[in-house]
């Protein structure tokens, strides 16, 4: 039995009410054998969909997760039950990929299957119908020492548009239940020293249509590719990286299931003077069209420099 609890004291209830406490993770793993190769995860935890979604902020190079896959499960978490299986050797490999600073995800199983509410973490269930998700991933080491991981994952369910996410005059189907389905593929070449991380997903989900002023079930697609190079100088680690991402589709978690058309290029570097501190500088070139009933024909372009310092303990 393994129990994990992670609170979050930096949640904003509104633009004027900041730093409220909430639960991020609260789950336990129930092992079915002595080596915990077979286990159930029960509670609020990350949904096994997408590689970057499963990475912690410490292991992710860009400051934000990509729009394409993260729009499927905002905040990456929900309340559910997930079965996970991984042989002992793969569990050790998952652990080493994080411990050795290679930006792994941790152990979410070689195979995962489960059911979750579908309305995301800390949100009430609205239709008593679970989302179903499954993921299979396989990390392996080549003769030259390089490590590759490939993954396939998908989920299906019905998303209910909450009433507080609907503009007064927007049109929507009477029961507010929308088809919510995705499939995604992931490829990772771990940085030894050159790294590639790429994912792409396709599916259907709720999306605002400016032509009809209504929320409809529409096709979506998008993904990203991240290139990196890991350098070590004594105890210091320096990782320059670049990511290109594109997404066309709705974001069901936002007002009127906003319609997005995103193209972004990010160039950055992560510096770790020690294992307990990291500094990231990232320059973003962004072109985003995001539209709802209140904001139509809303195209924004810009460039920005962001800095983030993070303590690891």
CATH superfamily: Porin
Task: Report the CATH architecture.
Answer: Beta Barrel
Distance between the termini: 23 Å
**Count of distinct structural domains:** 1
**CATH T-level fold name:** Porin
> Given the C-alpha coordinates, what overall shape results?
globular
Rg computed from alpha carbons, rounded to a whole number of angstroms? 20 Å
State the CATH class.
Answer: Mainly Beta
State the total count of DSSP E strands: 15
Number of helices, counting only DSSP H or I runs of 4 residues or more = 3
Structural class: mainly beta
Strand portion: over 45%
Low-confidence stretches: none
Order of helices and strands: EEEHHEHEEEEEEEEEEE
The major pleated sheet works out as: 15 strands, antiparallel
Estimated helix fraction: under 10%
Mean pLDDT: 96
Describe the fold and architecture.
The protein contains three helices and 15 strands. It is mainly beta. Helix content is 6%, strand content 57%. The chain has a 15-stranded antiparallel sheet that branches. It has a single domain, classed as Porin (Beta Barrel). The model has no long low-confidence stretch (mean pLDDT 96).
């Amino acid at each position: 039995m393994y129990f994990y609890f992670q609170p979050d004291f930096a949640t904003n209830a509104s633009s004027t009410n900041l730093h409220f406490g909430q639960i991020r993770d609260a789950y336990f793993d129930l092992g079915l054998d002595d080596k915990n190769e077979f286990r159930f995860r029960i509670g609020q935890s990350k949904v096994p969909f997408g590689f970057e979604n499963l990475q912690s902020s410490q292991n992710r190079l860009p400051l934000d997760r990509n729009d394409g896959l993260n729009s499927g499960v905002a905040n990456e978490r929900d309340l559910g039950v997930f079965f996970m299986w991984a042989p002992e050797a793969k569990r050790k490999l998952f652990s080493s990929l994080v411990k050795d600073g290679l930006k792994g995800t941790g152990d979410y199983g070689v195979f995962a299957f489960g059911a979750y509410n579908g309305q995301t973490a800390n949100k009430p269930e609205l239709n008593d119908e679970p989302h179903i998700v499954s993921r299979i991933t396989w990390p392996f080491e080549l003769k030259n020492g390089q490590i590759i991981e490939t993954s396939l994952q998908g989920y299906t369910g019905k998303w209910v548009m909450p009433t507080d996410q609907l503009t007064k005059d927007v049109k929507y189907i009477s029961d507010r239940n929308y088809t919510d389905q995705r499939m995604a593929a992931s490829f990772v070449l771990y940085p030894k020293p050159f790294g590639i991380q790429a994912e792409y997903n396709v599916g259907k989900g709720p999306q605002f249509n400016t032509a009809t002023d209504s929320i409809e079930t529409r096709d979506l697609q998008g993904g990203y590719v991240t290139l990196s190079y890991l350098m070590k100088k004594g105890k210091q680690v320096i990782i320059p990286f670049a990511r290109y991402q594109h997404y066309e589709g709705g974001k069901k978690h936002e007002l009127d299931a906003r319609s997005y058309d995103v193209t972004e290029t990010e160039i950055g570097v992560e510096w770790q003077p020690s294992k307990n501190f990291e500094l990231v500088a990232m320059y973003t070139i962004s072109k985003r069209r995001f539209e709802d009933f209140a904001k139509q024909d809303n195209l924004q372009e810009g460039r920005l420099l962001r800095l983030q310092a993070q303590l690891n303990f």
